[in-house]
Design brief:
Layout lengths: L3 E2 L15 E2 L2 E4 L3 E4 L2 E2 L2 H7 L13 H46 L23
Parallel strand pairs: 1-4
Antiparallel strand pairs: 2-5, 3-4
InterPro entries: DEAD-box_helicase_OB_fold
GO molecular function: helicase activity
Pfam families: OB_NTP_bind
């Protein structure tokens, strides 16, 4: 829907029309005029209202854009694969440590008079006296 700057607006006398503007009022006559207008940068709109606005790079061609997206996708897939392998390796090491711990516990022989964790027998104290 085409809109025009109202002649009383400060931006009207600039000699050019800004690409992006924010207005407060619409005046409907034979034409639609915007009043209380201010010029804004497109990055501001994308930053403050990302759910409504996005900035497209117009200086890149469609092929370059697709190539860039493909490169980003492959980089992301490689990163995910690397992370998955690291997680598998950590899981494998954890299982191996748990297995070694269990086998070590199973190999220990329980002997009377032998303290847990030591290799010497407990000797009964020598009786002194008669």
């Amino acid at each position: 829907m085409p809109c025009h700057l109202h002649p009383s607006s400060a931006l009207y006398g600039l000699g050019y029309t800004p690409e992006y503007v924010v207005y407060h009022e619409l005046l409907l006559t034979t034409k639609e005029y915007m009043q209380c207008v201010t010029a804004v940068e497109p990055q501001w709109l994308a930053e403050l209202g990302p759910m409504f606005f996005s900035v497209k790079e117009s200086d890149t061609s469609l092929l370059e854009h697709k190539k860039k997206q493909k490169e980003e996708k492959t980089a992301m897939e490689e990163e995910m694969e690397k992370l998955r392998k690291e997680q598998e390796e950590a899981k494998r090491e954890s299982k191996e440590r748990e297995r070694e711990k269990r086998t070590k516990q199973q190999q220990q022989v329980s002997m009377p008079g032998l303290r847990q964790g030591s290799s010497t027998y407990l000797r009964p104290p020598k009786k002194l006296g008669l």
